């Protein structure tokens, strides 16, 4: 795909038409590309468990996270409702010496490791499958494609593409690096792994490792390596079920067009119906994959079934 950097509107329109999955699974579909992740793919993924070693791919959810208020997103605020102090002082009103602790958390659903739901992005007022956006997401939430529908389905064969290690220097890609289809193919070949129908693909850029070393900076909302807009055809044609990266926005930042904002999102979510994960911690998994040479594994990454939500925190677990 040749990018005309001066014409985001035209490029998005042409790519959306070429990559559209509207109607592919019927007019009432609420799963998008998760339809590719079927029972056979889950059995294939489960068969990859050999050693039983597991990795959490989630960042921590705490006040020391990366958020700085971009798009009104904040870090989680954790508050105790009952504590050991209350129990010791006998303030809880419970019999026979029993005491306990309870807590609450307040946070945007996309402030750390998360999935973008199908109601998260629109194109010219159209949501996934061509539905009018105003009929899908209202002040009551996502009335049709709420992320709760995906909760039973996100488990199967995971594949790590450590582009930072294969293409980058020192295991990291610089901010602004646009990952092309050729980069993805070269990485898969270097790892000796295939990517195809129903896979959950994880793309490591190395940016998270860098900000942990150097400080958060503009990690949440700033420049980043990521997928090129030109990969839209690959995302569509490969029939993957989902994709996640270790960056805040999945696609390269700054974007490749003049006066554009997240053009790949504008195609991938409302037109391809692709489930997108962001801010995943892939570093420990990547080290293990490099050590044993196995880049495919069982992966379970269910969103919280929050009714009507357009995104969800997640604690993905990879098992090898």
Automatic annotation (TrEMBL):
InterPro entries: KFase/CYL, KFase_sf. It comes from the Bacteria. Its EC number is 3.5.-.-. One of its GO terms (molecular function) is hydrolase activity. It holds the Pfam family Cyclase. It is an enzyme of class 3 (hydrolase). Gene3D superfamilies: Putative cyclase. PANTHER family: CYCLASE, PTHR34861. This is Cyclase family protein. It comes from Streptomyces marokkonensis.
